[in-house]
Amino acid sequence: MTNLVKSAWIEGHRLRLRNATEADAAFIFGLRHDPERNRHMSATSPLLEDQRNWLARYAADGSQAYFIIESAAGHVPLGTVRLYDARDNSFCWGSWMLVPGAPAFAAIESALVVYCYALELGFTAAHFEVQEGNVAVSRFHENFGAVRIGQVNGQIQYTLGHERMLESLGRYRRFLPDGIRRGPLI
Ligand SMILES: CC(C)(COP(=O)(O)OP(=O)(O)OC[C@H]1O[C@@H](n2cnc3c(N)ncnc32)[C@H](O)[C@@H]1OP(=O)(O)O)[C@@H](O)C(=O)NCCC(=O)NCCS
Q1: Number of domains in the chain
Q2: Residues 112, 143: contact at Cβ < 8 Å?
């Protein structure tokens, strides 16, 4: 069983991921409640305080890693992504959101950073769900080689195996030419 350890920060090419803290509550709250972005996301509490409390519990939870996606230059917050639900050597990722107007490379690079980090932790596969109707995101994952394995409660379930993960990292190498560097594991 591989563990989903947090890292203080992970640097990619033009992006940097950093561990989310209570201080990020307002940013995350704004994104989760942005009608332009939250149509296919599960609803979160309308209280900012609940978001802050969630992040406080997250800090003490050794089973998930939640990152703020930032620009590498200037550390401008651009979105969020979360790794959770480790099952043997497969990890789940989601809570994936970018602010409206985020640069076009941010989606691909953040996905590649997630896969690189998970591989470093020892994972060899991924599983995740996409809401039925979130066609662009389904297409994104399918372009990465993810395979539909089922559909439950309006959620399409996907897996991505080791071979396809490595193949996509190679195919999209121009988006992450030097791999990742990371800070201490937390
Ligand atoms: C999910 C999310 C982070 C993805 O980001 P995104 O910017 O919409 O991703 P896109 O698929 O549009 O890809 C961004 C760019 O990379 C390009 N791209 C995507 N996949 C690519 C690929 N495999 N190869 C080359 N280019 C690719 C796209 O063409 C696009 O470029 P463009 O803007 O010039 O058209 C964003 O849509 C979001 O925040 N959505 C709301 C929340 C949500 O639904 N999250 C998912 C829950 S499962």
Answers
A1: 1
A2: no
